[in-house]
Design a protein that fits this description.
about 170 residues, alpha+beta, Alpha-Beta Plaits, 5 helices
């Protein structure tokens, strides 16, 4: 009988599939701040369809070559705008090395990263200056007729300004 400090050498063979290693690598890559998505544009489109039917591919964008004791990993990814791309690639590489070596138990010989796009989030409406109304661009201001709302008054002013411009171009005076 073995004591609590003794271990027995296990016999048998363990095979770790490429799909399992790819999922570990993909999860590690996704955990890095600044990684928007994994995969190329076409793969992400197909992945969106898979998600709808409930067949997500967690290893999307990751390809691995598994040997008996070593593994090589290739990652295609989309970075979040604002993150320095070389630093992001190094952080992803370090996360993948650590996860595969710790969780899978294989030596990682290389992690190749291809950043194939940069995701730019929605542009804030507050940052864009609103386009001036036609009457403001033409420098014409007309008081709103009684009983009209502000938007109706603006439309009336714009129509009047347009009529004034057209009459000036025809040679008439307002």
């Amino acid at each position: 009988m073995l004591g609590p400090d003794q271990s027995q050498e296990a016999t048998g063979r363990t095979v770790i599939a490429e799909a399992a290693v790819a999922k570990v690598a993909a999860m590690a890559a996704r955990s890095v701040d600044g990684v928007h998505a994994l995969g190329t544009g076409a793969a992400r489109s197909i992945g969106a369809i898979r998600d709808v039917v409930g067949a997500s591919d967690l290893a999307q964008g990751v390809r691995v070559e598994v040997g008996e004791t070593q593994v090589a990993v290739d990652i295609n990814m989309v970075a979040q705008y604002g993150k320095p791309l070389q630093q992001l690639a190094n952080a992803v590489r370090a996360a993948v090395y650590a996860a595969v070596q710790d969780l899978v138990g294989l030596d990682v010989i290389e992690v190749n990263i291809e950043i194939n796009d940069v995701h730019v989030g929605p542009v804030d409406a507050e940052k864009q200056a609103p386009r001036p109304r036609l009457s403001e661009r033409l420098g014409v201001s007309r008081p709103a007729p009684a009983g009209q709302t502000t938007s109706a008054a603006a439309e009336t002013a714009a129509e009047a300004a347009t009529a004034d411009v057209l009459s000036i171009h025809k040679g008439d005076q307002p």
